């Protein structure tokens, strides 16, 4: 049974030597958002933690370090698997690598993944990803107005739970906007859809101090099925 789901940014700057970068004023809202997310995450002991990410290593490690206050509790981390063919054998943490193919495919793979897992298990789904990387001239890829357009539209669709809108983004547009997280987010939304559980979208923070959109989003999950 799904007990937790979120979208979490994965910028290395979010973490200092041992915990969240509480002293960094520029990302204060993002860190506060993650602290709230951590509060929700820590309410359960999970049998299964799924972490989808467009990048290996930091893409998975940063959200795990952000959500587990004590990294000694993370448990066994399995090898990276491709989004299209995830196999779950036993309890633990499963990193899943997304591609920049079709978002609809990732949504379907998320649905398929839920059908494969043991429904008695307590499951957390962490969708690791950042929004546009072209929000500022001095950002990593410079400025492109489609970046701002993407972040605005995505946030609006998410608040409206407009899945069709989210799945409709064109890949050329996403490339121009320098987005990395949408395939991971799409897979998580497919997974949630397949659970049949009703949920509310709770945007905990959105900031882009360095030209990259950091979105922290929690999903408040109803116990009752639709
Ligand atoms: Zn990224």
What is the string of helix and strand elements?
EHEHEEHEHHHHEE
Structural class: alpha/beta
What small-molecule ligands were found?
Answer: zinc ion
The low-confidence runs, each spanning 5 or more residues with pLDDT under 50, are none
- Let me know the number of strands: 7
> What is the annotated CATH architecture?
3-Layer(aba) Sandwich
Strand content: 15-25%
Rg calculated over all Cα atoms: 16 Å
Widest beta sheet: strand line-up: 3-4-2-5-1-7-6
Q: How can the largest sheet be summarized?
A: 7 strands, mixed
Mean pLDDT: 95
**CATH homologous superfamily heading:** LigB-like
Shape: globular
CATH class category name: Alpha Beta
Q: How many domains, in number, for the residues?
A: 1
- Supply the number of helical segments: 7
Helix content: 25-40%
Here the CATH topology equals Protocatechuate 4,5-dioxygenase, Chain B
């Amino acid at each position: 049974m799904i007990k937790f789901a979120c979208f979490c940014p994965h910028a290395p700057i979010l973490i200092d030597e041992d915990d969240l970068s509480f002293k960094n004023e520029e990302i204060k809202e993002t860190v506060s958002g993650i602290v709230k997310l951590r509060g929700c995450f820590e309410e359960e002991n999970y049998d299964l933690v799924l972490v989808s990410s467009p990048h290996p290593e930091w893409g998975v490690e940063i959200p795990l370090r952000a959500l587990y206050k004590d990294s000694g509790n993370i448990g066994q981390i399995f090898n990276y698997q491709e989004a299209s063919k995830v196999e779950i054998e036993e309890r633990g943490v499963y990193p899943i690598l997304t591609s920049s193919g079709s978002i609809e495919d990732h949504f379907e793979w998320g649905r398929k993944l839920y059908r494969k897992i043991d429904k008695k298990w307590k499951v957390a789904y962490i969708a690791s990803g950042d929004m546009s990387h072209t929000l500022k001239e001095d950002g990593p890829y410079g400025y492109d107005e489609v970046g701002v357009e993407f972040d605005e539209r995505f946030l609006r669709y998410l608040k409206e739970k407009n899945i069709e809108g989210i799945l409709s983004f064109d890949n050329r547009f996403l490339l121009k906007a320098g987005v990395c997280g949408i395939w991971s987010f799409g897979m998580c939304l497919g997974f949630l859809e397949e659970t049949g559980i009703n949920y509310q979208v709770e945007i905990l923070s959105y900031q882009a101090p360095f030209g990259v959109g950091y979105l922290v989003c929690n999903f408040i999950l109803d116990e009752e099925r639709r």
